[in-house]
Specification:
29% of the residues lie in helices and 29% in strands. The protein is an alpha+beta fold.
Length: 161
């Protein structure tokens, strides 16, 4: 599998992948993490423009997407029911989505991200058991609860080598 920066020409396919991921979340008991319309086309286009959007490609087909955002995440400044493992610089993995064709695609994303940035953080909804399992399988540790832009809580994770 190849992981590369997303390009503007990928945008339509990325929106298909995010729709498929939202449908999967709805079917697997997590209907509220991504409200209707999230992530927006504008948000994904901004990830691409900033050079933070990535795609996973196999046999010339884009099957998954994510954002790797270096630097401090404004929503990670306050954490409840725990604490971050350290205060070192980190990157945050956001907007992980797959069309469901490739199994354990997050493992590939994680390896790619680890090669870019040593310390990684991520968050997910309490009902997103699939993402929680993927994070923990890759060595992320639950650190506490953070709140995202719409005020809803997320389980905060950190990977420290």
């Amino acid at each position: 599998m190849e992981i590369r920066k997303a390009q503007p020409g990928d945008l339509d396919r990325l929106m298909e992948i995010y729709r498929a991921a939202k449908d999967f979340m709805d079917r697997s008991g997590n209907p509220t993490q991504w409200k209707k319309g999230y992530p927006t086309r504008e948000m994904i286009a901004a990830d691409i423009e900033k050079g933070q959007g990535y795609v996973c490609v196999e046999n010339g087909i884009v099957h998954a997407a994510f954002a790797l955002v270096p630097g401090e995440d404004p929503f990670y400044g306050v954490i409840e029911d725990g604490q971050w493992k350290n205060d070192r610089p980190y990157g945050a993995i956001h907007r992980v989505a797959s069309d469901g064709v490739i199994r354990r695609v997050f493992d590939e994303m994680f390896c790619f991200c680890r090669a870019q940035i040593e310390d990684l953080r991520a968050d997910t909804h309490q009902d997103n058991r699939v993402m929680q399992q993927a994070l923990e399988r890759c060595g992320f540790v639950r650190c506490g609860i953070i709140y995202v832009a719409n005020g809803t809580p997320r389980i905060a994770y950190q990977y420290v080598p």
